Each structure stands twice: as C-alpha cells, then as structure tokens.
Predict the structure.
Amino acid sequence: MQVRHIVLLSLALVVAVVIGCGTTAAPTASTAPTVTAPDARYVLADEPADAKTVLAVRKDAKDGDEVTITGRIGGDVDPWVKGRASFLIVDPSLTACSERAGDSCETPWDFCCEDIGHLNQSKATIKIVDDKGDTVPTDAKQLLGVKELATVTIRGQAKRDEAGNLTVLAKGVYVKR
C-alpha cells in the first residue's frame, strides 16, 4: 500500500513539473509592451556642452543652483518611480556589472558590483517637473523613451536635503542614443 502511494505521488510530481515547465508563447501585438515616442516638451534635442558628472554636482551644487548633470540611469534594482517622471542616475565613472568580464548579473543597472558607500555617493534623483514645479505624472520610461543604463544629460535645479542627497528638478533631458 505504501509503495502505491509513493508511485502516485511521484507520478503527480512528474505531471506537475511537465505542465509547469511548458514554454510560454511569444508576445503578440496585443500583449507586447507598447513603446511610445518621447514627449518633446521634456526632451532636449541637443546635448548640453556644459554638463558635469554626478560626483561633481554633488560636491559643488547648492540648494537652488541651476545645474547640468550627466549620468546613467540606474543605481538600484528598480531605479524608476512608478507613475511619475522620476528616476535615479549614477556617475558615468561607475562600471555596470554587465561591463565586467565574467559577470552575469541579471540587473546590471543596479551597480551592485560597486562599493555600496561609493555607489551611494555617486547617485542623484531626477524629477522631471512641469511649469508649476510638480513632478510629471507619467512614467519616465514612457515620457523619455528610455531604459536602464541609458546615458542622460539633465538641465534643472538642484535640491539638497539635510543628508546631502541630491535631487534635480529637471526642465529638460537629453538622451544619448
């Protein structure tokens, strides 16, 4: 009787694995994510020539200063603020995990291969704002047509908190293509 139970359980396990490990269908036109064109109100046509790195702006910028900053989208597993035109950038001197020989990190834009202290000092938060100064209520990926590790240059106003963290209230973003 016990052998019969073991055989039935084994058979059930095999069936579950076979059913659960089936292939998934390729996305169709109706299920594939839609890519929208960048919103021209917030995208700079030309790359600003006076951009500074994240590290330089973090060092020099005071609250309220007009800045032009360049970096790469990333610094966290999810560098995006859902439903808002806000995201993290890191200093361009940092090396993404995917750019390191032999690394197979699934989220190379989180820069987890970097020293955490250095990474935290190399980040800035970007908030794309409208004419009233409010964060645009659209995902930045859609608004700008970008993804993780894209190099961007931002014109905006520096905001500093008590801890020295940097947020840039962006008026325009150039996306390096």
